[in-house]
Amino acid sequence: MSQTKEPSLKKLEYLSLVSKVCTELESHLGFGDKVLAEFITEICRKCETVDEFDSKLKENGAEMPDYFVRTLLTIIHAILPPKTKSKSDKEASKKDDNAEKLSFPALNIGDSKDRVKELEREIEMEARERRKRDGEVGDDGERDHRDRDVD
Q1: Same-domain status, 56 and 8
Q2: The domain containing residue 95 runs over which residues?
Q3: Are residues 126 and 83 both part of a single domain?
Q4: Are 87 and 121 contained in the same domain?
Q5: What is the chain's pLDDT, residue by residue, as a tens digit (151 residues)?
Q6: Is residue 16 part of a domain?
Q7: Are 28 and 80 contained in the same domain?
Q8: Can you tell me the distance from the alpha carbon of 123 to that of 115, in angstroms, rounded to the nearest whole number?
Q9: Are residues 120 and 63 in the same domain?
Q10: d(C-alpha 147, C-alpha 2), whole Å
Q11: Cα–Cα distance between 123 and 131 in angstroms, integer?
């Protein structure tokens, strides 16, 4: 029975940590995104020092103030200690950089201006289709106004 509780407890601990990181992101940066919190947590678990964590964040396009990076590292390491690296692990980590990029494929998509415009068009099209489907907008793009007889 302890074998079933242990993974559940670890999962609960991990979710609690992600929630805490989300809260910190919300209070310091103004947004709390669960996926970003999980990503930051995984990066932090692979780092042992603040400088290493800060450089990994910057490699992934996350520029954050030093005090905030230190706070995140402290919170994450308090709940989930870092994975220790041996010399062979350090050599393997160089090879794992490609594996890490593959494990988060959506984060590897470059956001060029063309890609941003393409995403905006997709969002607009989905919104129009949803409004059409819900009967809010007619084929001409105008709202349907239906007169109702009032007795």
Answers
A1: yes
A2: 2-103
A3: no
A4: no
A5: 444 558 888 888 889 999 999 999 998 888 888 898 999 999 998 898 999 999 999 998 888 888 999 999 999 999 888 766 555 555 555 555 566 556 666 666 677 788 788 888 999 999 999 888 887 655 555 555 555 655 5
A6: yes
A7: yes
A8: 12
A9: no
A10: 66
A11: 12
Tokens 């415009």, located at residue = 117
Helix, strand, or coil here: 66? Answer: helix
pTM value surpassing 0.70: no
To the nearest 10 degrees (0 to 180), the angle between helices 2-29 and 34-45 is 110
**Alpha helix stretches (DSSP H) within the chain:** 2-29, 34-45, 50-59, 66-79, 87-103, 113-133
Q: Which tokens in the block code for residue 24? A: 């910190």
Q: 70 and 133, same structural domain?
A: no
Q: How many CB atoms lie within 10 A of CB 43?
A: 20
Q: Are residues 54 and 92 in the same domain?
A: yes
Cα-based distances in Å from 8 to 5, 80, 117, 122: 5, 15, 43, 39
DSSP 108: G
3-state secondary structure of 49: coil
